[in-house]
Amino acid sequence: MKSWLHRIWYGLVVLWFRLTMFPLYRVRVFGKEHVPAEGPVLIAGNHQSFLDPIFCQIPIRRNLNYLSRDTLYDHWFFGPLIRSLNTIPIRRGQSDITAMRAVIDKLRQNHAVVIFPESTRTQDGRIGDVKAGFALLARRSGATIVPTIVDGAYEAWPRHHKFPRLGRVGILYGNPIRHEQVIEMGDREFARWLTTEFRRLQAECRTAMGRTPYDYSDNDAPVASEAGPDAA
Prior knowledge:
Blueprint: H1 3-24, E1 28-30, E2 41-45, H2 52-57, E3 64-69, H3 78-83, E4 87-90, H4 97-108, E5 112-115, H5 132-141, E6 144-151, H6 153-156, E7 170-173, H7 179-185, H8 187-208
Parallel strand pairs: 1-7, 2-5, 2-6, 3-4, 3-5
Antiparallel strand pairs: 6-7
Helix pairs in contact: 5-7, 5-8, 7-8
């Protein structure tokens, strides 16, 4: 698809989602001013449902790129649709070097990319440990990282349900993190820190939405593993 035609198509798709998702899910947005308007950006989000990429995009004017599980490209409906959007295929459950290089290339061209560094959708709405492989990607790309929380998407479409339902969704964009901070902390320490920051921001978002924050007191200290980020 020609670049100008692709931009028009992508803009129309995002506009349609804005017009439908905001009223259907009574979306509230916090901190969207934290997303840089230009330069390489990693939107690092918690992963509650298949709806997360849409919720990360619709509050902001900047176009985003996404990792998408390679098996989705074979679907009769979703395959052609996601091919027409800003997606990068990734093989799930393994280190996909080609996909990571494609992400880094996008960032070095000053694009913005959505990543879910927990590597899988949540089982219960709570945030799992961030994988150390995400820190490696952030460090090598030189991108600004914006920790992003979507809350309420799990209730709308949990992984054990076949179809989505309506609900209330909050989206919170946290303070940007420079890639120099990742270098200073090291990959594993940064992954542990980001896990804690995600949980703090989630509590902030849930409180603002009038919900009780999740209790993580029974969790051991976050442990960073080597696996990379997951696709939507």
